[in-house]
Each structure stands twice: as structure tokens, then as C-alpha cells.
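#structure-requests
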Amino acid sequence: MQRQLYLLLLILLIIPTLLIAAPANVRPMYPLPPIFTGLEDVPDNIPVVHPPYNLSDIDGIDILGDTVTVGDTWYEYQHNATIGRQIRLSDDGYIHMVWTKGEDEPSNNRHIYYNYIDPSGQQGWQGSGYAVESSQRGGFTSLAVGWDGIAFPAFHQVTGTNAHTAVATDFFPHAGAFLVYEIPWYNGQDLEYIWPRITMKTDGEILVTSVGNSDPTGASGMTWSMGTYDPLTYSISYTPQILCGPFTHISNEVGASRVSNRVGSAYCAPLENDVGGWDVHAMIDNDGLDLNFDNYWNVTKFMEPDLAWLPDTLMANADTLRAYCDVSMFYDMDDYCHIAFTTCRWFELEGGLVYWNASLIWHWSERWPNDYHVIANAFDPDSFVDCGGWNFRGQRPSLGQDPETGYLYCMYQEFDVDSTAISLGGWPSGEVKISVSTDNGATWSVGTNITNTVTPENAPPGECLSEAYPSMAEVVDGNCHVLYVLDLDAGAFLQTEGTITLNPIIYHKVPVDLIPTSPTVENLTFHVAHTGPVVSTEPEDEAKLTKFALQQNNPNPFNPNTTIQFSLETISDIRLSVYNLRGELISTLADGAFSAGIHTIAFDGSRLSSGLYVYRLETEGKCLQKKMLLLK
């Protein structure tokens, strides 16, 4: 008992000291959101402000391009993190849009709504949209379009005890007469696999991913399922949900090539040793015929903290970037995969996430699998304006491409953290920006603000203009097509921020000629650079390096050359071989006696096609193997 009292007293003495000693430009640890907090119920006692609203100044806003209201919602919240595709441009020139609509102030009636704009500019349902489903509660939608312009909204719905993922299909293109087909329950159990993302392959098959909500049903991880649409019966049949990859965040995104049958998924997952923060992982199936998403690769490969480097605090902290919630996956017209993602700053020695809202948006592609390029730099460590739950200053990237020019575009949200432009409730307003790359993603222009709204200081509800939850169509046809919620009181009320207002759903068309290609964003270093020898804390470290071990090839993914390192405890006869996923021998890299110690073997994959391969080290009854990814 005395020992416990002593420890309690010691803690009470230490905590104030730590707070006083915190640097001026940081705050105490601001933890990342819990892994699954997909809040959906409107909290009690949130104020409601009804229209009419004072929007007299909106006509004076210097908006780039044209905007039109396609619907509205009391339920502002569209997604916790990754937005996904809520807007698509189909081959027949129609713009398709979906969103979650709260039909009343507390959103007890919440449904998925759909609208379209035809090539002449006419809406299907002027300023309103049409309900997709009639469940007890629908939400968190994304969209695929195929089969001659038929829309396939994915969402989760409550029809009984728990919410489940479902996909709707329109009877005919642009009809708005949807039939809903729920994906079979995972393992036949009533588990909440929700927050779906959807895409369609060139052969017409649908890929749907969902994430398990660990509370309250015990589901976890990400699943995928394939859907086949039958145009004769207007029905969708599914394969069973298959669990794939490691534990994932609510950040799943899917993408499909428009020039081949390639399909894939990207998402955030914890660092391997659970030291704090997230990496971006990705999975790709190259032929789309017999999908196998058991294999994934780590896109970001953040170097974890290593206290053995102390007193060198730079190296002990290692990489100070961590992925945060946002991913956008896209295949260009040359069939290369691109991923955009958001990072925050993580300082292990200082207690974790210490900057208030600073963030960066990055680009990765198969063209340069070991390079990372900054799309947007919203890293302002001196800003103390809180952007709210699940938010950082720059976030929510959405990638697309103009097939005519080959230029890549990335739309994203950035909060205006000017302290004189904060709402009455104390929250900053979102803006929508677009950046362009003319060199396949190697450099990106400084983002162009396409909304240019300025919230007056202490603006009351109804006079605050905050663009939130933006999504961009992946096809840019000389215009970028964007959809967002115009939140009339900044802050997400599900996070008890701001008030409940009736918010317009805005379609925004921006000619690409209005988006400058220069100046470009200065690129930054992604991984920390080793500056000296590691300080060993264990005298046995050198001996451990020479145990029988097989290391991950480097680089990985590679194109076309990589190296494989292995170590032996004693002189041994070994064989190092490479196999494809069917178990067929591709190459024998080493065969014979090798001395004790560390050995490095080069591998040239120039004659092989892109894909996953297995390399295997065998010796005297022992066998180790790992997978490597060739991306061309």
C-alpha cells in the first residue's frame, strides 16, 4: 500500500513538470483517433439552427469554375476518414453523385441519395436527388459506374440489429430505381463489416471492401468481396467476404484500371511493432481473374524509433512521419498505380503526436516505387488552431487524370487556420484545392484554391461557409468534377463541434485551364538518413546478425534489380531460389557452400513480368522464405 501511494505521489509531481517543460510550439500528446470510432448517432443536446440562413455574401466569392446545388443534408458527416469516390464521370458524359442525407434534424431518417447531371447540364432531380435505399439507416457511401452508365452505390445499412455493407443497382442508366443487395455476412455471422468502398473492373466485376467495427460485435480487419451483375435480372451475386491483410484503419480505398483488368486496395495499418502510428499498405491483383489479396506490401515503410541511437535523438526518433486515415488509389492510362496519402508528425521521444494540426499530403506511384513526392505542404508547427476530430490542416486527397494531356490532378481539403476567420463555435473552415502534375507525379504545383470562401470572424451558424468531405471524379475531361458538403457551421457535430444546419451538397466543375502548373511544391525528405554508427546496447548484437536468417529484399517493390541478404551461423551448403506463386522455379541464385556470416546476392528480374515472387533459402533441413514484388 505504501509503495502504491509513493508511486502515485511521484506521478503527480512529475506530470506538471513535463507540461511546464513542453516547447512553445508543441502541445502535450494529441493522440490519433481510436482505431474504430465510427460515430453515427447524433449526440444529445446539439443545437439546431433552421433556415433561412444569411448567405447574402456568397455571390461575391471568387469561385473558380461553376457550382450548382444537387441536394442537401442535415447530416453533414459523410466519412470518418478516407472519402472514396462519391462522384463519377461515366463514358456517356453523365456526372453521377451519391451522398448520405439526414432527412430530419436529428437524422433519425438517414438515407443514401443519388443525383446525376446529363451532358447538357440538366439534373435528374433538381437540387434534391433521389433515395437509393429504404433501410432503417443508411450511410457512408461510395460509388462505381459501369454497364452503360448504370450507377452502383455502396453503403452500409441497418435492417436489423447491426449495420452491414450493401450495394444498390439502378434498373436502367439514370433511372433512380434502385434494387439493394446486401453482401453475405462474414462467416455467416451478424458482424458489422461496414464503411465500404467500391470499384468496377473492366470486365464488369465489382470489388467491394469493408472494415470490421470492433465495437460492439467483435469484428476486425478488412474484407473484400466480388460482385457479378446480371443485366437480365438486374441482380448482383457475391463471393463470400474474405478477410485480408493485417488489422486496418477506417481508411480503405479501392481502385481499378481503365486499360486492363488490374484492381487493388490501399489502406492504413499499424506499424509492425506497434510503436505508434500507421503505415500505408497496398494490395494489387494484376489480371483480375482469380483475385488473391492475401499478399500486401508496405508502401511507406516508416523506420521505427530505435533507442539504441541515443544520445542521437534524431536517429532515435527515426522517421517522424506517420500515415493518417487518408488514402486515394488510382490507375493512370499507362496502367501505373498511384496512391496519395496524408501524414502527420510523430515524435516518439517527445510523447507521440505533438504538433497541433500540421500535415503533409504525399504521392507514390509504381513508376518510382522508392520515391515520395509532396503534393501539399500544410505543415505549420506554429499554428494552434484546432481543426477538429479526425482532421488535420491538409487532408482528404483524391487523384484523377486527364487522358488527353496525361496530367495528374489531386484535389484535397485544407483548413483556413487564420485566427480572424474562425466560426462563432471556434472552428476553422475548410477550403478545396487542386494541384496538378505534368510529369506523372514527380512534381506537383502549389494547390489552387477553387472555393476561396472566407468565414467572417465569429460567424454564427448559417453565415459560416466550410467545404467539407470533398471527392473528385477520377476522369478529368478538361474539367475537374468535385462534390462536397457546404457546411454552414464549421466543425463536425458528431464530434460535438458546431451546430446542426441544413447543408447544400455542391457539385463543382473546374476547367483545368484555371489550375496553374507552377510554381511547384518543394519536395521533402521522406525517410530519416543514417548519420553515423549505431550505439549498441547489447554486446550480443553482432552475434545475432550471423544467425541463420533471411532478410527482406531491398528495394521492395523493385524494378528490375534487387538484392537479397542472408546470414549463416556456420559454414553451410545452401540453395537460394526464386519461385512464382504457382510454385514453379524461376531461378537459382546460389547453390553450394557458403561461410558463416552475412551474404548478399543480386537478383535481376528484367525478363519477368510484374507480380509477386517467393524467394527461398534452404540448408540442412532448414528453410526460410519471403515474398517480393516486381513492379514494372
